[in-house]
Amino acid sequence: MSPREMRTYQTQAVVLDHIEYGEADRILKLFSFEKGKINVIARGIRKIRSRKAGHLEPFTCVNLFLAKGRNLDIVTQAETVDPYLGLREDLTRLAYAAYVVEVLDRFTYEEGQNVGIFQLLTDTLSRLANQLNSKTVVHYFEIRLLDLVGFRPQLFECIDCGDKIIFQDQYFSPLGGGVVCPKCRLRRPEAWPVGKEVLRYTRHFQRSKWSQVEEVIIPQAVEAELSTLMEHYFTYLLERKLNTPEFLREVQRKSTPPEVD
User: Fold this and answer.
1) Please, is 206 exposed, middle or buried when counting C-beta atoms within 10 Å of its C-beta (0-12, 13-18, 19+)?
2) How would residue 23 be classed by pLDDT, with cut points 50, 70 and 90?
3) Dihedral over alpha carbons 223, 229, 231, 232 (to 10 degrees)
4) pLDDT tens-digit series, residues 116-154
5) Strand, coil or helix: what is 136?
6) What is the tens place of the pLDDT at every residue in 148-200?
7) What CATH architecture does domain 3-83 belong to?
8) In whole angstroms, what separates CA 51 from the centre of its chain?
9) How large is the average pLDDT for residues 76-93?
10) Taking the model in full, what pTM does it have?
11) Fold of 86-255
12) Has residue 105 got a pLDDT over 70?
């Protein structure tokens, strides 16, 4: 391998975010197939004649050629693999994509290759861009990501007594990382009530392939409770609130048609 080849490499990545840098550059936050989460710099991307700008927007999957730099590696070429156009044609889908990216960003670090997370991210963005049941897509993503980052919740047996969870309202302990049965609830003051229907859907998502859940439509009341549960659990695990859920709720409020008397 020549010295030039050692200084350059190719990777496929999803653009998570970017920040302006200097007069014409951008620092890009990527999740890549080969190296996991990385930051790189795109020189001159904000110039009018830049050929790379259109390929490096957030929520875009790209093939990149990069040169190793002193502090940040430098983008030398970029070619779009999938622009996920359906996201850009619908504000609600775009808001869901922003949520997915924020959750993934908060739970991951610059710690090297993770093919499972990369595949989950690209699959989820593709599903959001092409399918109507965005809520099912997102909740499936949440459950699968928790598996991949080491926070798989225990949903089938009580975390304290080990009894099999039956189809009735239960409790969820963020501290214990799973479901608590009613008889063990007194020893878990931090546990939240969780409805049996919410448990039914989360358990289905946890044990199933996407092909087995893609047609699932979650009832509105169940989905609202499930969204609240996941938001609270993520806040507990991350020790801070996410920014995108409120933006998503605002988008949903504006896109909901008013009731007719």
Assistant:
1) middle
2) confident
3) 160
4) 999 999 999 999 999 889 999 999 999 999 999 999 999
5) helix
6) 999 999 999 999 999 999 999 999 999 999 999 999 999 999 999 999 999 99
7) Beta Barrel (2.40)
8) 29
9) 94
10) 0.92
11) de novo design (two linked rop proteins) (1.20.1440)
12) yes
Locate 83 and state its tokens.
Answer: 């622009």
> What residues does each domain of the chain span?
3-83, 86-255
Per-residue model confidence (pLDDT) at position 48:
65
Q: What residues contact residue 200 under an 8 Å CB cut-off, 6+ apart?
A: 167
Which contiguous run of DSSP H or E holds residue 122? helix 115-130
Q: What are phi and psi of 46, to 5 degrees?
A: -90, 0
Partnered with residue 192 across adjacent β-strands are 172
Q: For residue 209, is pLDDT > 60?
A: yes
Consecutive H or E run containing 7:
helix 3-7
Q: What is the DSSP letter of 68?
A: -
Tell me the CA distances in angstroms from 173 to 78, 143, 160, 179, one per residue in order.
Answer: 45, 16, 10, 6
Q: How far apart are the first and last CA of the chain?
A: 73
Supply 242's token pair: 């996410």
Concatenated DSSP letters of 164-209: BPPSS-EEEETTTTEEE-GGGGGG-TTPEEE-HHHHHHHHHHHHS-
CA contacts within 13 A on the Cβ side of 137:
20
Report strand pairing: 178-180 vs 8-21: unpaired
What pLDDT band is residue 47 in, cutting at 50, 70 and 90?
confident
Residue whose structure tokens are 């039956």: 166
Q: Which two tokens stand for residue 59?
A: 């929520």
SS3 content of the chain, % helix, strand, coil (to 5): 45, 25, 35
